[in-house]
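QA checklist item 7 of 12: single-chain prediction sanity check.
[x] sequence parsed
[x] length recorded as 501
[x] structure emitted
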Amino acid sequence: MQTLSTQCPETATRRKRNGLLAAAMAVVLATGLGTVSVSQAHTGDHDSQVIESTPHSMADIIERVQPSVVNIVATRSASHAASMRGMDPRMEDMLRRFFGPGRTPAQPGQDEPMQSASALGSGFIIDSEGYVVTNNHVIEDAEQVQVVLEDGTTLPARIVGTDPRSDLAVLKVESDKTLPAVLFGDSDSVRVGEWVVAIGNPFGLGGTATAGIISARGRDIQSGPYDDYLQIDAPINKGNSGGPVFDTEGRVIGINTAIFSPNGGSVGIGFAIPAAQAKTAVEQIIENGHVTRGWLGVQIQPITEEIQASLGLEGTKGALVSDVSKDSPAAKSGLEVTDVILAFDGTEISDTRELVRLVAKTRPDQKVPVSVWREGKKRNIDVTIGTLKDPEQEIVASNQPSSETGKLGLKIAPLDKQSRERLRLDESVEGALVTGVAPNSPAARQGLRPGDVIMRIGQSRVDSPQALSEAVESAGKSGEESVLALVRRGDSQRFVALKLG
């Protein structure tokens, strides 16, 4: 049996029109670029829709922005180049910086005399007066820096300033002609899956353009306290360092700085500094020659489920304060060890890294409200942010994990003068010294080891083995399932949640 269908001319026209529209949209979705407009047209007795596709070609974008992308040649002394050869190869295997091949200097004792080495990188012009942005590691310790324009013109460059913490540097060149510049875009609104174009100088091949998508946001690659990288899959290699990542409007939304590469080449995983972070740093470097960051003066750690239960928190968001620096803004404002910072200047803290970034970008001397969880209640504290001067002042975020455990299993002793000298602890440090840890005990599973100092159990300070025992016993009698122990090891402190029997 055959099934026959009939349709009126109007239905056939509508279906044909919808089919054309679907086909056009498929082209747009496949390329990721372009706009489609549908307009009314009159043909005979029926209205029809004409599909007009206006693609924003990658070629158009590249042609417009490529003149602003430059090559960077940084010349280092032979002694510096030789010292670079002693780098740990494991670091190169994990995250390969984009130094170009340049010349490899001969080692002392070889026939070829030692010569200076040139590192090749990328950069881009952000101002027609000649300001150029690149990575700090491209020009670090360079004796001479040159900028090569798209037309081959080579200009000597002056280093305006650098920011090693964010791996950014700003150069200045002088030219008789107006230099083409590009603008920073909005990296905060860019989404995973959006198309991007990377232009740079891989392996000395200047003007190389590659395309891909944003494959992830907020990547922490353990390169510093402010890690918040965009991950892109556009092929980038050695020499792309400092080069721009453009969106489909031709604006810079990222600066290439690192790749993950087990073999030395691109495997489709690259990392770029977001424009929102870079723009602030670049503006400060141009104005002051350096970057000024806010300082709070605390050590913090994530909230685990065990810590959450111990403190009576509703969730695991926030940052637990494990140490407060003496005479710091945190200390002066009344922040305490065991406080959980829930919000900073009106922004809810989801994790430790977010707090680090928020404090860093806060203007020094600015008073900001901080919401904390203390002794089962929320409290609001006003903190006047200080100025970060030394790397040691930075907020230290400890990500050491905790796990569910059983009995304590600790041997403890007084923290005497001999122990203090051996552990290099001054008189201000009080606590009970761990001398032994039973295998498979809660303390062992939490990573405690001889030489650790337990400074606090919950809200109780510990200044002796007896004080520690009393605090643990008191917690058990009150029905608590676990105790929160503040443990000092070396110069750092962290909380661990130890389950009671």
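[x] summary fact logged: The longest helix spans residues 9-31.
[ ] second reviewer sign-off
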